[in-house]
């Protein structure tokens, strides 16, 4: 029940403020990423010391994304634990367990470094995102989620879109992972699936997932905020990545590929 959750009053009173600050920070990040690339992955080499000490990208990612896996079950424990609430938890965990645990552990050990700033920023992002979504759905606006998901056409369509994006994301990550053998630090042109049409098949599929999540939650503000933030981050990142690929591989890089959205952008 709601009255069981620890610190309910500050959780409730902070919600609208946290939501506005979260979106404001996202917008600032969106603008900044057109001028400065966050130092992780292919952009970590030669990054300034101002970003702080560097850590293993593989294990740093596990740490920084961990709240998205471990925080939601805590919210669920203190909730009414309805079937609808459980389904929300399950689809969220399927995405993040794959992203945070399975894919990094399967990744070759040559994954690039990340910085202390990126780890702290991402950790804070995940804590905030899970709070906005799970406190909001389970407690703050739980009356809106007293319905049979499988009799609601919008929710069913949302779940279908989310599932398509999830499967596409897994396929894309698998293609990227198989480009290298253990110990190989070189970069290669990804081929197959949506990579024939976009340089960022994995990003595009993640955007599809979170759009489906919006429909699944019936346009809940936390889901809309997460989708917006995802676009704030992935849009400029994909443009920079596309530019990097073309510079790295020159005429060898397929000219028909777009940066993010197949056939469009």
From TrEMBL:
It holds the Pfam family Steroid_dh. It is found in: Membrane. It is a multi-pass membrane protein. Residues 114-265 form the 3-oxo-5-alpha-steroid 4-dehydrogenase C-terminal domain. GO terms for cellular component: membrane. The chain crosses the membrane at residues 17-38, 114-134, 154-171, 210-229. One of its GO terms (molecular function) is oxidoreductase activity, acting on the CH-CH group of donors. The keyword Membrane applies. InterPro entries: 3-oxo-5_a-steroid_4-DH_C, SRD5A/TECR. PROSITE patterns: S5A_REDUCTASE (PS50244). GO terms for biological process: lipid metabolic process. Keywords: Membrane, Transmembrane, Transmembrane helix. Belongs to the steroid 5-alpha reductase family. PANTHER family: 3-OXO-5-ALPHA-STEROID 4-DEHYDROGENASE, 3-OXO-5-ALPHA-STEROID 4-DEHYDROGENASE FAMILY PROTEIN. This is Putative 3-oxo-5-alpha-steroid 4-dehydrogenase. It comes from Streblomastix strix.
């Amino acid at each position: 029940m709601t009255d069981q959750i620890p610190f309910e009053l500050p959780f409730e009173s902070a919600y609208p403020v946290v939501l506005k600050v979260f979106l404001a920070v996202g917008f600032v990040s969106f603008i900044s990423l057109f001028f400065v690339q966050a130092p992780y992955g292919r952009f970590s080499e030669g990054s300034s010391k101002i970003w702080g000490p560097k850590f293993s990208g593989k294990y740093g990612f596990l740490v920084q994304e961990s709240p998205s896996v471990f925080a939601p079950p805590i919210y669920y424990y203190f909730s009414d634990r309805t079937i609808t609430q459980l389904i929300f938890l399950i689809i969220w965990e399927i995405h993040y367990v794959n992203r945070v645990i399975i894919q990094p552990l399967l990744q070759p050990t040559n994954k690039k470094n990340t910085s202390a700033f990126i780890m702290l920023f991402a950790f804070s992002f995940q804590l905030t995102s899970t709070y906005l979504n799970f406190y909001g759905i389970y407690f703050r606006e739980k009356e809106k989620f007293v319905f049979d998901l499988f009799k609601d056409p919008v929710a069913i369509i949302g779940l279908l879109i989310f599932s398509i994006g999830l499967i596409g994301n897994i396929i894309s990550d698998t293609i990227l992972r198989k480009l290298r053998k253990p110990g190989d630090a070189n970069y290669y042109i990804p081929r197959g699936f949506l990579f024939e049409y976009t340089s960022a098949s994995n990003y595009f599929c993640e955007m599809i997932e979170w759009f489906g999540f919006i429909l699944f939650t019936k346009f809940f503000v936390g889901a809309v905020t997460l989708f917006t933030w995802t676009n704030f981050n992935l849009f400029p990142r994909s443009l920079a990545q596309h530019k990097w690929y073309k510079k790295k591989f020159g005429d060898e890089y397929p000219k028909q590929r777009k940066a993010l959205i197949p056939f469009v952008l």
